[in-house]
Design a protein that fits this description.
Arc Repressor Mutant, subunit A, 2 domains, 10 helices, 0% strand, mainly alpha
Length: 199
């Protein structure tokens, strides 16, 4: 039975079907979390959004905690890729911050899950968050070498991002990026030399 279940179906392999279901469930979860909050988001609602069954959900993720961790990992990985793609070698810090804030603006569901709905003490979620913070700091404050200053820069920028998202993105991306850049240059003698274009 197991071998039969893993055969291709209409030319699509079992592995590809599994990957497609996983991606659909994660996308649906992010959307449901943004609409209902993480505490009120049910497995049934996520499955309805993804047009899949509870069996598919539990076969792939096991339980809600594991699913949330994978959704969170997906958001952070995607966000880092967008930041990296935005970096201009002529102005790496300001362009990285511009990429970060543009990503939050362009993906409001992910911004809500990542910044406003993350009240989770699960060890795996905390580990993913810690790893994300370290990788993001390397992009937005690459020349800050003292550990406490890195923590301060990252913390200040994340607070700016949370207030910006919760306030409805009132300020332009350019204004927020240049404001945040001041904290990225903490511990250095230099200041931002170019402004991120307003959007």
């Amino acid at each position: 039975m197991e071998k039969a279940a893993r055969r291709s179906y209409r030319g699509v392999s079992f592995e590809d079907r599994l990957l497609d279901r996983r991606e659909r469930l994660i996308d649906a979860g992010i959307a449901i979390y943004a609409r209902k909050g993480t505490e009120r988001a049910s497995v049934a609602a996520i499955c309805r959004e993804a047009k899949l069954t509870g069996r598919h959900f539990y076969e792939i993720f096991g339980d809600r905690d594991a699913f949330f961790a994978e959704a969170f990992r997906s958001v952070t990985d995607s966000l880092l890729e967008l930041v990296k793609a935005a970096i201009d070698p002529a102005s790496p810090v300001v362009s990285a911050l511009g990429g970060f804030f543009n990503a939050l603006l362009d993906h409001p569901d992910e911004a809500r899950v990542f910044l406003l709905e993350l009240h989770n003490n699960d060890p795996l979620v905390l580990a993913i968050g810690k790893d994300f913070s370290a990788r993001l700091t390397e992009l937005i404050a690459p020349e800050v070498t003292q550990e406490l200053m890195k923590v301060g820069a990252e913390g200040a920028i994340m607070q700016i991002a949370r207030r910006w998202v919760s306030g409805g993105y009132t300020e332009s991306v350019g204004d927020v990026a240049n404001m945040a850049a001041r904290f990225s240059f903490v511990g250095q003698d230099r200041r931002p030399t170019s402004r991120h274009p307003a959007r």
